[in-house]
């Protein structure tokens, strides 16, 4: 299992780095779109969403990201149009009105959870590919240090009802990993950013990564599955790989705006 994980990382990470840093914004949009569609499909499979409602949900996710790619002002219109289509598909697809809210809830939650969250990476990418490298590098460092410190020193469970393997020591590792990576990545990719701002941003990314991981674990526990999918050998599903960055992306964008680094 660990050999598969390492092989995937060695092959995929350099390719992703080149793709993100060397190709224009439109190519990054198509990458985010592909990831969003697959992650939404995994989420719907977890909750047994099928048929026209599932198709409408995925189409709504595509519309949301397309709207964000063209103009941020279009987001409310895209979201409401998606709601109209999804509710209409539930209305005509099943005449029994009972459980209609229950049927629609995971479809609509997925819209906010996946494409809307990923859309913030489109905003970050407009400031340059270095922001995407900063985001993923900080999340990766936070995850990695959380794993190794938690495995070595972790005794007190952080949130056993949701994720029995996460520990308080691992959470501190996530904070330290994010902060350290923020400081280091600033030196290589964002020299105009002050050290304290990059460290603070990395620290908050480390904190948000913990929350993102726990939220996805909460959904998986609720759905009764171990992994969101099996598309990535040795890693589970796409949603398993992006759970931390789904929340960290918006937070980094808000931080960068608060610091006056992006518009």
Q: How would you describe what is shown here?
A:
The protein is mainly alpha-helical and 263 residues long. The protein has one domain (2-258). It contains 9 helices and 2 strands; from the N terminus they run ααααααββααα. The protein has helices at 2-22, 25-46, 51-70, 75-93, 100-126, 129-153, 168-189, 195-223, 238-258; strands at residues 157-159, 163-167. It has a two-stranded antiparallel ribbon. α3 runs parallel beside α5, α4 packs antiparallel against α5 (100-126) and α6 (129-153) packs across α8 (195-223). The longest helix has 29 residues, at 195-223. It starts with a helix and ends in a 5-residue tail after the last helix.
Task: Offer a quick outline of the entry.
This protein is 78% helix and 3% strand. Helix 1 packs antiparallel against helix 6, helix 3 (51-70) packs antiparallel against helix 4 (75-93) and helix 6 packs across helix 9 (238-258). It has helices at 2-22, 25-46, 51-70, 75-93, 100-126, 129-153, 168-189, 195-223, 238-258; strands at 157-159, 163-167.
Secondary-structure topology with pairs:
Layout: H1 2-22, H2 25-46, H3 51-70, H4 75-93, H5 100-126, H6 129-153, E1 157-159, E2 163-167, H7 168-189, H8 195-223, H9 238-258
Helix pairs in contact: 1-6, 2-3, 2-5, 3-4, 3-5, 4-5, 5-6, 5-9, 6-7, 6-8, 6-9, 7-8, 8-9
Count of beta strands:
2
Helical content stands at: over 70%
Question: What structural class do the secondary elements suggest?
Answer: mainly alpha
When the domains are counted, the total is 1
General form: globular
Contiguous low-pLDDT stretches (5 residues minimum) are: none
User: Distance between the terminal alpha carbons, to the nearest Å?
Assistant: 43 Å
Structure annotation, total helices? 9
Largest sheet: 2 strands, antiparallel
Mean pLDDT level = 93
Arrangement of strands in the largest sheet:
1-2
As a whole number of angstroms, the C-alpha radius of gyration is 19 Å
Encode the helix/strand succession as letters: HHHHHHEEHHH
The proportion of strand residues reads: under 5%
């Amino acid at each position: 299992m660990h050999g598969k994980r390492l092989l995937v990382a060695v092959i995929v990470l350099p390719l992703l780095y080149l793709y993100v840093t060397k190709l224009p914004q439109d190519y990054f949009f198509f990458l985010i779109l592909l990831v969003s569609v697959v992650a939404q499909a995994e989420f719907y499979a977890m909750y047994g969403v099928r048929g026209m409602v599932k198709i409408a949900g995925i189409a709504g996710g595509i519309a949301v990201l397309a709207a964000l790619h063209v103009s941020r002002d279009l987001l409310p219109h895209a979201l409401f149009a998606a709601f109209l289509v999804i509710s209409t598909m539930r209305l005509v697809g099943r005449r029994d009105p009972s459980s209609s809210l229950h049927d629609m809830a995971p479809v609509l939650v997925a819209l906010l959870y996946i494409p809307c969250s990923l859309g913030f990476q489109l905003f970050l990418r407009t400031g340059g590919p270095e922001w995407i490298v900063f985001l993923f590098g900080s999340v990766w460092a936070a995850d990695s240090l959380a794993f190794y410190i938690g495995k070595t020193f972790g005794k007190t469970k952080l949130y056993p009802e949701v994720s029995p393997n996460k520990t308080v020591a691992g959470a501190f590792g996530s904070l330290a990993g994010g902060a350290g990576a923020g400081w280091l990545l600033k030196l290589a990719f964002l020299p105009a950013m002050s050290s304290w701002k990059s460290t603070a941003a990395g620290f908050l990314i480390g904190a948000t990564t913990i929350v993102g991981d726990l939220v996805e674990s909460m959904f998986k526990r609720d759905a009764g599955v171990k992994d969101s999918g099996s598309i990535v050998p040795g890693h589970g599903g796409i949603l398993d790989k992006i759970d931390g960055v789904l929340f960290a992306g918006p937070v980094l964008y808000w931080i960068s705006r608060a610091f006056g680094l992006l518009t």
